[in-house]
Amino acid sequence: MKLHRLTFAFTALFAASSLFAETKPAAAPAAPAPAKPALPAVALPPQPPDVAAPKVGPDGKPQDGFIKAHENFVKIAKEGKTELLFLGDSITAGWGGKKAIWEKAFGAYKPANFGIGGDRTQHVLWRIENGELDGIKPKAAVLMIGTNNSGNDSAEGIAKGVTKIVETIRAKTPNTKILLLAVFPRGSKSDGAFGPQQEKLKQVNAIIAKLDDGKHVFFLDIGDKFVSGPGPISAEIMPDFLHLSEKGYQIWADAISLKLTELMK
């Protein structure tokens, strides 16, 4: 009888402890890690359009894509093969996607395309001061730059930037003929109509046209090839009213071919 009671008591105790284990409250969830404080915005100093500067990001450091493209151009320059050089921003860089037109129009001239999207005058200036003209003596250089400056800089400031680039090319490779193109027209993102930026660029073009000396620098305005009359810009030629379509690049090639033939002799 005692053994039976002892067995019953042990069984009841085991059942109670099991019930307690099943009803034990779940552990409280771990507290989330404290959020990292946001980095304070970096107040970037302005980049004057006529002072050489690399393109920087929000952290104030040179942009990786810009530096990589620049380093690639320096390598091309060191090869010493380029006889026709294109310098500019994304509009110039866009030739990379129009290889058939490029090869047909310029392939015989041993061309190189040193265009980088988003570049302003100060960025092109920095590039050619830091190796992109070292090792090459092009017969001609096609320069078109300034549209990305038009949002913040004055017409006079932009023109000073273009002038500084022309002077630097002349200093580094004095026998190179410079085909200085007027900054291409640009229109409103909504409908292609001309606005304040286009008016500013017209002022820029009027100033830099005076750089034409008929010997080393040759100014050429082909803007009317892209726009008929007072506008608006045709989306067929400039889909976003700034960058060129395939038709636009063909217009560009045709518009400068005669002058390039002369300069590349």
Give the topology, please.
Elements: H1 2-22, H2 64-79, E1 84-88, H3 90-93, H4 99-106, E2 111-115, H5 121-129, E3 140-144, H6 155-172, E4 177-181, H7 196-208, E5 217-220, H8 246-263
Structural class designation: alpha/beta
Rg (C-alpha, Å): 32 Å
Q: What's the mean pLDDT score?
A: 88
Order of strands, widest sheet: 2-1-3-4-5
Binned strand content:
5-15%
Give the CATH architecture. Answer: 3-Layer(aba) Sandwich
- How many separate domains make up the residues? 1
Overall outline = globular
Terminal Cα span: 123 Å
pLDDT under 50 segments (min length 5)? 1-28
CATH superfamily: SGNH hydrolase
Number of helices: 8
How would a textbook summarize the main sheet? 5 strands, parallel
State the CATH topology: Rossmann fold
Helix content: 40-55%
H/E topology pattern: HHEHHEHEHEHEH
Work out the number of β strands.
Answer: 5
CATH C-level name: Alpha Beta
